[in-house]
Amino acid sequence: MIAPQNHENEAERLALLQSYSILDTELEEDYDNLVLLASEICGTPISVITLLDKDRQWFKARRGLDVSETERQYSFCGHTIHEADNILVVEDAREDERFFDNPIVVGDPRVIFYAGVTLKGASGMPLGTLCVIDNKPKKITESQLAALKILSDQVMNLLDLRKSKMNLEKANEELELANHELDNFAAVAAHDLKSPLNNIITLSNCLHDLYSPKMDDEGKQIVEFIRSSSETLKKLITGLLNYSKSGQYNIDDKTTILLSDLQRSIKELFGGRKECTITVKSDLDSIYANKVAVEQILINLIANAVKYNDKPSIEIALEIKEQDGFYEFAVKDNGPGIHEDDQEKIFKIFEVISEQDRYGDKGTGIGLATVKKVVEGLGGVISVASQLGEGATFTFTIKSPIVVESSMA
Fold first, then answer.
1. Of 5, 42, 175, 217, which alpha carbon lies 20 to 30 A from 65's?
2. Residue 90: strand pairing partners
3. Residues 365, 349: contact at Cβ < 8 Å?
């Protein structure tokens, strides 16, 4: 018997094999089906997907074998990976000096016939083989060998797909961790900034109220600049805090929300604006959702519809319906509309497309980004439909359970 040699780049080969995290995993139907096909095509009682570890050959899938691994020094597959054409066919192992006295030839499982195709990873590095085995001498046809090559490619497709999936999951975990750390940083930084900022606002207000008569015009302008800049910064910090918390809503933390109560809350918040009319239309009496999250979304959307409206009379319509397992909310206004080129930008954090709102203030570019984050956290999506001069309609969905519907005007 001649034991197989290690690959010339054995350390690199083993590292590549380990990168698939496949060794000692459970049996899987996709791999089992491939060895079944290999046996059926080649007419053999045994077929195996073999991966060559440091001191063993481990079987990811096997037909006709009860063991999950054997010693590498006795393996035929250890020889296959050195073949120039990546194929090894042994018609009668008893007549081959490499195998005639091999324990797996003279004893169980009596490997007399063997045909194997190398499984090649990155840069052609061999990981193992797909092989068929018989207990008696046998010949294999060119078409059978070609089919075996095709099946070996499918094995590598499965392995590469597994690796890609693992890398994607790892990247997603790292991204989620980075986002979580960024949210925490924003929350901590914003919270720590609020106290000294409030002091600046308080002191600048005192300075303005107590000492304004003693200041010249330039001094008054400087104090006013401090006050306005501080208020702008406070809005930004508050927005960052809201954004950092917006992903913390539990999708399963739901309660029954009476739409009559929701309508009353909205009118109480915005009813002080005589120029503003808000109507709510729905065939539902109630919805079952995260109350705080839904209210935050609607308040942000309605507040934007008010602030950026350019009409003397502001008209806002809220419509709520349920279909296909989702609640759908639509907030429509009669404002100036949003240019098509800006309709994706407005949901990105810190994107500001209007120089100032109805009251002369400039936005922070955080509100709609926060809304989008909350909506997606609740399993929904948000979009906007608009034409310049014809207002805008913001539509968002959140997952819903089965609810009982009745009429509500």
1. 5
2. 114
3. yes
